[in-house]
Amino acid sequence: MSGYVRTALLLAALTALFMVVGGLLGGRGGVVIALLVAVGMNLFAYWNADKMVLRMHNAREVDARSAPDFYRLVAQLAEQAQLPMPRVYLIDADQPNAFATGRNPQNAAVAATTGLLQRLSPEEVAAVMAHELAHVRNRDTLIMTITATLAGALSMLANFGLFFGGGNNRNNPLGFIGVILTVILAPLAAMMVQMAISRSREYEADRVGAEICGRPLWLAAALEKIEAFAKGIDYAAAERNPATAPMFIINPLHANAVDSLFSTHPSTANRVAALRRMAGVADTPARGPWG
């Protein structure tokens, strides 16, 4: 099953869950209010999230003068991906990592830590930035915004059901117990679907990023290195803002060994295995043009 199909099915499941919970909790007015509030919150985040996230991490914008090699690399990759040139940022942090943000390809930004440029080879840096440009091309920011809207609306709907629906809700076959179960289980189920979508988008970005840079094993090597460094190097800004962790190519807080239900990132070993299958070889790739 392709990443796009899986994401569409997960979004459909989240939408269906929202409708089922709305039916169980009754109050059509509560459904409308919760959805409107969630949409409003997420629309604000959608238009302003890039500025907010970049500010949280003290990212500084660079150009062809201030970071010529890195800027030129991103420009080459953007051209290869047939994307508009994104804004380019650097973050003064020792841990190697990177993320992409922006509501669409025309308003995108990519950011990398100084540790990424210092600790990885030019080929590995190219692969990482290709992965981030893949997120831009796949419009993953939009997908995750829709997901967050539905998950947030569902959580608010569950709270409204608890405080305003109570035991008088005739739509729930289990009465007040059913309301309590819905309030507890519905947001948990929504969070699990949301994280599954996040993991699915990472796999898809790996695949497209490998196609953009032309060397899947460059990205495989980069992922292994970043995970190893992330385990031993603290990232203070990420620790202060853990909600931004899913944006990074590797979890900057703690690397996960398995694809658990509550993990926002796939297992690095699984991602590397998929990239090696894509490459069809297990040896270190030849040097390329990204110097």
UniProtKB/TrEMBL annotation:
It comes from the Bacteria. InterPro entries: HtpX_protease, Pept_M48_protease_HtpX, Peptidase_M48. It is an enzyme of class 3 (hydrolase). GO terms for molecular function: hydrolase activity. The keyword Metal-binding applies. The chain crosses the membrane at residues 32-49, 142-164, 176-197. Its cofactor is Zn(2+). It is a multi-pass membrane protein. Zn(2+) binds at residues 131, 135, 202. It is found in: Cell membrane. The active site is at residue 132. The keyword Membrane applies. Residues 69-278 form the Peptidase M48 domain. Keywords: Cell membrane, Hydrolase, Membrane, Metal-binding, Metalloprotease, Protease, Stress response, Transmembrane, Transmembrane helix, Zinc. Binds 1 zinc ion per subunit. Its EC number is 3.4.24.-. Belongs to the peptidase M48B family. NCBIfam families: PRK01345.1 (NF002363), PRK03001.1 (NF002826). This is Protease HtpX homolog. The lineage of its organism: Bacteria, Pseudomonadati, Pseudomonadota, Alphaproteobacteria, Rhodospirillales.
